[in-house]
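Bug #77: duplicate submission created two jobs. Keeping one. Sequence:
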Amino acid sequence: MEDSIHNKDADDAPSDDDALLDPSDAAEIVPDHPMDMDDDDEQADGGEQEIQLHNDSRAYFDLHSDSIFCIANHPVDSTIIATGGGDDTAYVFSADIPSPLLPPSYESNPSTTRSSLQPIAKLQGHTDSVNAVTYTLGNGNYLLTGGLDGQVRVHSATNTKQNYPLLASAQEVPEINFLAPCPHPSYPDTFALGASDGSVWIYHIDSQDKETHLQVVQAYYLHTESCTAGAWTADGKLLATVSEDGSFYVWDPFGEAAAAGITSSSSGQAVVGLTAADQRFAIEDGLFSVAVSPTGAFAAVGGAHGMIRIVGLPRLNTTNNNSTSATKSLQGGGTAKNKPGGKKQTPTSLVVEAVGSQTGQILASLQIQSESIETLAFSRHHSLLAAGSVDGSIVLFDSAHWFAVRRHVKEAHDGFAVVQVAFGGLRDEKEAWLLTSCGMDGVVRRWDCRGGVAAAAAGAGGGRPGQQQGLVKEWRGHRGEGEGGGVLGFVLTDGGKVVTAGDDGVSLVFT
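Kept job's structure:
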């Protein structure tokens, strides 16, 4: 089986030829602050190795005592950052760092050291690593943490600058793999989680309910192995999940697809279901990533051996009850009468219609990269799909032209696994074309995804191979390069900052 950050081979046994280092010849230099170290060739004169320390960050947060596995920012104030780590702890801090009035060279007594950003809150209670964290959508009223202990813990976040008191917790599964907040405007403070036993749970949070603040909306059990990733449609009506067993399901937790007459022939629980039993869909060794197009017309699922499948989804249009184009109303539908928490919808307030006839069809099968597809992202403003792979490459597909390859950056992260890709940045028109990526090389990079002359111009003036394929900027500061310091995730703020989650236990703030 290929190398994957999901399926790692056992460590190779040491060979007889391995040389042992005399303890007297060993020395460790630990810098005061986390910085990237680039090794140069040994100097010809003395045989000594020159170590360069490179840190592009404006600020850092280093109170975690182990790897930071996950990161999220508040949906309203994007500079409020939450992180979770291998120390069984989550932290909340602010990345809103003021710009200096003068550069350091103008200061009368410039400081050579920086202090860590201070936490707003330290959240404890998990008994194993915190590997999922997110805020609920709507107004970001709650911060959720999920752990390898199977707990999901809900903290009140109504005041983002003060302590986050625990509101509720639940432990229904062995381990939590992901948390996904629901964007449906009618169901704020609702979220999904995927578990190591393959189950998928939908919860709603109601702080006003005196009996239970955390209410189960739905639970699904069709995946037979670990549920590795999930993504909501942009309108929050459907949830897509994938599993290590190679299955892909699209769930209808609020009954809106059923109200529109959409059901699955294979299962009453899912409106779309594809498994490895279908040889057209089968991907040996499992699926690890999923993304839904902004229109909700199709989903991309990524798995082992660089394989990607594009699957058509049902599209549900919701209008008021005076619309004449609707095919079926929620009135009398039965399956979507109640919101989570038991509050009834107004009987004739919504009309749902199903659009398109490609539901459940495999629209494309793609295989450009050689190893597992760990991350997928659609552009919200252009017809682009980005895929990052364990082989260190990034591929851009054009969804408007049958997913033709727009660009293949083979050495996007110098041969180290690409962990996350994300389109973002809307401060001007150019930023709609920007893709940010991070990898186990410890580097965050930004790419101009325009083709032809624009991409070449953006990469002009540099000698690195990636600069000829749209690389416009990179940020260093984590160790990376196999030294336990890769970047395991990042978030983008409205002010243009990139805040990272480091395998070295440090979160860096780049501008």
